[in-house]
């Protein structure tokens, strides 16, 4: 009955047979489409690897320099990225060079998407370049050869952009990060700011229970297995083995999640899957000596972060030599390069903040909370945030004073002060940090270092035994053909080889897949069998994750037990030495001498400069009290530079900023006391305008802290006092500021500068003095003759001339001073003191000449002094 309230909306009855049929059709169709995507992947692989220079760049490019034509040939090349039609390149902006990792995969991941490291720089108007590489290395190619090639690339870029305001910015990912850092350590003059993303630099570092990959070298017995793999490849190492290591880190993703994600979303996921697999499956090769150098010296030996590497030319690779700012970008979600490995080199090289300043190094680090290893340089969200902020503020990074900073990026909100001064949707700031802050992230343990040191020793032993007893036999059995087949049958490469149209059993899938797409019948998301499928997938993934945790835990316990054993460490030779297994690299005498000279030079600059220097010193003084810098403040400075007719160049501004920062570090009190001297000759209006502008710069960001506010008030008092003095000076009613520290004078100069009272001599005393002088006139004339005779005699001996000249000059100065003070010989105590001091000084100065000269030559000096 209508309106009775007993009506019920009929619910569709559940028919399990219908649901099962719909699910079965959908599952079969998904299976066909999934197989077809794998077939396309195989075809794509063969097509990609058949190219002369395969890469996955999404932008047009042209070859600028071929590394195979360099004096030390390498398989690298320099490409220039062509900007899109709607983007204009600014020739004044510094160029960017992006270097991709050669760690098993092919090149191009840094420009894989429009929203990438290269894409961000291109859109900002920077000239952009890309360092690519070929799948096969050049014969006899080494790590040092690649470093030299990268230096050649930078020289070429600098030559192509003579008007650029700054050296090239180098962005290096993963393996390319440590290689670029090594290049910058031996050729620091070529580099602008360096951004290393997900790059391991301290290989023993890591968090217990979270970073098991660092234990692989010890569990495999060292680097002998690397040598054997290269020998099986006839002198070449297959990069697929490196990719296999990455795959093993996350078995749930490798064995199930990645493939299931494609299967469950095959209608929409195919394009994204194929584009990524194009890069992931493009395995490349390394020469045997290349990979052996990397494993022995970096992965197992960990010699880079303690300046333990020396080139074949005898140059020590010390990261402290890098003069450009270094930006380290890492993530807590990265299981390949965790933050301890990305940042561990800082406490490895430096014992305190003073050493960082002494080497003039600027280090900026940013730690992401969750992004994975590939996401650091592939993720679009990371490109829109971190890479966008670093690129838009690269000039600010370049002029940061030496020290350690943490980059903090926050969202821009309607409440953000001066939000228009911040580029994009975020606000970037650099907060000063201590070395202890970095140590807290790295969490280094000395007992773990001893374990890894034992691994390094045992690795050398095992490698030596392999080379002596196994390598000759293995090399004799390996042929080029056997090496090629071992590479083609690699577990990661085999699916690409087999599942393609080259396999006659796979080719028919294409027609079946086409029919399926024409008659696609997707199952409802509410289908119970589909829901059961999702539950089963989650169970498989969870099970694999549990197995991974058990495996990693067992690996860690095994490593800690074996290499923590005192017996093993004694057998490795560690028991004979006390103290930490890795010593601090120390500082060379040449660097200490350089720093002493540099400190002396900086102290001489405390009172040098003018209004601009005073303004920069003020900014650094107040921002130092604030504890950080903000991009909004630098945006104002950049705006002022653009509006000024005689603005400093960026390099001049950087040099002055660094000098003033070090001056404040050396002696902040003296630097502040010298501020009036810097402002002394400036017009009042200029002083007033500079103070106003600097206050705007300092207050452009968040409100100042109490300490910074106090420092700003101190600067205001200094500037306002200088302005008042300038006004009086302009009105002609002020005396010049006294010299804060007069140079040290000799006794003669001090005596001659003493102001004497003008005395009126008594008439009788004047007559007596005149008579006395007249009586001594013949003696004076005789003395002059004797002096000339002695001078002629002394000219024959150079060692006698200088002392005599000094004696005559000093005596003459004292005589003139005495003649000015009074008309008779003894008028005031000051004159007597001056004459006595002059006589004593002249006598001591001329002592060597007196001993060598004849009595006739000594007499005039006495007469004249009297």
From TrEMBL:
<dbReference type="Pfam" id="PF11339">
    <property type="entry name" value="DUF3141"/>
</dbReference>
<dbReference type="InterPro" id="IPR024501">
    <property type="entry name" value="DUF3141"/>
</dbReference>
<feature type="compositionally biased region" description="Basic and acidic residues">
    <location>
        <begin position="791"/>
        <end position="801"/>
    </location>
</feature>
<protein>
    <recommendedName>
        <fullName>3-hydroxyalkanoate synthetase</fullName>
    </recommendedName>
</protein>
<dbReference type="InterPro" id="IPR051321">
    <property type="entry name" value="PHA/PHB_synthase"/>
</dbReference>
<feature type="compositionally biased region" description="Low complexity">
    <location>
        <begin position="802"/>
        <end position="816"/>
    </location>
</feature>
<dbReference type="InterPro" id="IPR029058">
    <property type="entry name" value="AB_hydrolase_fold"/>
</dbReference>
<feature type="compositionally biased region" description="Low complexity">
    <location>
        <begin position="823"/>
        <end position="857"/>
    </location>
</feature>
<feature type="region of interest" description="Disordered">
    <location>
        <begin position="763"/>
        <end position="866"/>
    </location>
</feature>
